[in-house]
Structures are given as structure tokens and as C-alpha cells.
Protein: Chromate efflux transporter
Organism: Saccharibacillus brassicae
Amino acid sequence: MDTDSGKPERPSPAKSGTLLEILAVSTKLGLTSFGGPIAHLGYFREEYVRRRGWLDERSYTELVALCQFLPGPASSQVGIGIGLLRGGWLGGVAAWIGFTLPSVLLLIVFALFMQTFDLAEAGWIHGLKIAAVAIVAQAVLGMGKNLAPDRTRATFVVLSAGAVLLWPSAVVQIAVIAAAAVCGLLLRFPAADMPPPEVPVGKKFAAACLILFALLLAGLPLLRAGTGSLEIALADAFYRSGSLVFGGGHVALPLLEREVASPGWIGETDFLAGYGAAQAVPGPLFTFASYLGWMIGGMQGMLIATAAIFLPAFLLIAGTLPFWSTLRRSLPMQRALHGVNAAVVGLLLAALYDPLWTSSISSGGDFALAAGLFLLLSVWRLPPWIVVALGAAGGWLLGLAF
């Protein structure tokens, strides 16, 4: 809407926000935002742009565009970015706490339930694993259409999936992403035409965040090797997972599986059951880390895992906001990210096969249930939490019948 002077009305968020206000609004979103990151962005737009006018449509779109270029959970980063603009770095923390805490608490309850009862062979737990197959299959299909729409990038997808399945390690995953970035540069994918945003965040604070991000990414593995501490190992595993994920929570699955299931910190059944449960709660899918941390190390493990996996998202959005105008104009970066995004789809495709498919689909009944849940998600457009509930019920019925 225009003012009398003819200039677009742009709210001044940093001056008008209070921490309690930011916390209250973000908590409301954390309690009601079902449906995954794309749905979250719709909820954010309705609440922050249309209802409250904390920022205008263009500013919101530009912030979303920035978060699509960064590793980590895009919807959480958008929420943190709005909090930063509204109330400084403390506003970003308040926005993150409000949006994240409800799903953390729900998943802790689920973890306690898993630890109290012997549920490894329960039919409904198997149903949660089958629901996870359907949800990740839908994510692979949707991301493939958007991020690998041509033959070249579709080839990137298949080659990336094949590489990480043949040589399953975190090093290979990083090498695949790096190789895809180089190929994107060499093949000169078209760049998007999008104006850079205008953001009031200090460059000194931003530079400090980026330096801290790099120091932790490089230093935690060294500290882990030197101390042998489980707490440091947890911090390193979850921080690295949060730092190297492009494309949202689903893509964290293979990294997290390598980090926590391969060393034997948590069983594969418990891992996949928690992943299925994470689909049924509101808020960011990255709170799956809270469940894993609790299962591995109780309250302390949960706090370390939650803080470590989300910290890169905060440091990156706070560190790049003031430099976004320059970065967004860089054609090489845009082209490299085309390749990276296609490789990310390949990593997710590999995770769909191993560990999801190999540990969940073992009979015709399992396949029929997975196909039905996929149909409900992709064609009937049911919310994921309903599909997860139906998956648990279907798994229970399969257990009774066979």
C-alpha cells in the first residue's frame, strides 16, 4: 500500500518489536504450523505480512529467496530472519525459541514413551517407518521437479544418489555437493532475475557470525578427536548436519543417519520411528534432532543436539543478511547452486532407498500401505500429520493381520 508521499510503506521492524511480542507470535506459529517448510512459509506470510505488517510483501519474498540459498532449515531461517529484523539478535533468538519449542516438547514426550515401553516390534511403530517412506518419496518427487527440471540436472540427481550409495560416508556426500557446484559453474546454468533485499543488520555483527560458523565447523571435529567426549561428539555431529544440509529437514536424514545410527548411538528402528513422529508435529522437522539427542543422552543430549543443529542456521542468516545484495548479484554463485540443488535431490533419493526402504518395506502389505500413503499425500493432498496417523494405524492393522 502506498503512503501520501507515493513511496511504498515499509515497516521499521527493529524499532517497534518487543521480545515478548516476537516470542508470543512465533509460539503461536510453532503450535499451529503443520505441513512442512513450504506450508510454514505460507503461515509466516499470513501472520507476519498480511495480519501484522511487520514487513512488506517484497521484503518477505526477498528474505525467503535468501534462505533458499543457505544450508539449513529454510522456514526456521526465515522465522529467525524476521525476528532479527524485528528485534535484533535477541529477536532472532526469541523467534527461534517460539517456533521450535512446541515440537521439541512433543518429540521429547514421544522419546520418553519409546524408552519406557518396548516398542521395537510394535505394529504402529512399523507404520510410522512406512509413513516416512511415503513422505520422503513425495519430497524427492517434488524437489526433483523444481530443482532438476532438465536432463542435465536429472543426471546429477542419479549420479549423486549412486555415489553416496556405493561409498556411504559423510566425506563422499560433501565431495558430491562440491563436485556438483563445480559442474554448475562450468555448465553455466541460467541465473534468476531477482532484486536484492535491503536489510538493517550491522556488518561487524554479521562478519562475527560467519567467522564463528567457520571456526565451529572446522574446530569441533578436532576437539572431538582430541577429547573423546560424547558431549563434544554430539555437538560436532549435529552441528555438521545443520551446516551441510541444503533443501530442508528431509535432506538431513542421510547425514543424521550416518552420524548417529552408524556409530550405534541409536538403533535404526528408534531412528526411523522418531523421524516418522517428527512428521506429525507442528514446527520445523529439524527438531527430530531433539528426539535423537534425548534418546542418546537424556536432557543434556537433547539440549546439545537441538542447539547444535540450529546454530548454523542462526549464524548463517545473521551473517549473510547485510551482504546479500552483493552475493545475490554473483552469477557464479547462482550457477553453482543450480548444481548443488540437483545433488541434494540425489542425496535424498539415496536416503529414500537406504535406510528408509531397506528397513521398512519387507512385504507386499508394506508396499501397499506405502503406496496408499503416498497417494494421500501427493494426489489427495492430505496434511502430513494425518498421513502419519493413518500410517501408524495401518501398521497396527498389518501387525494384526499377518
Observations:
- Residues 74-116 form the longest helix (43 residues).
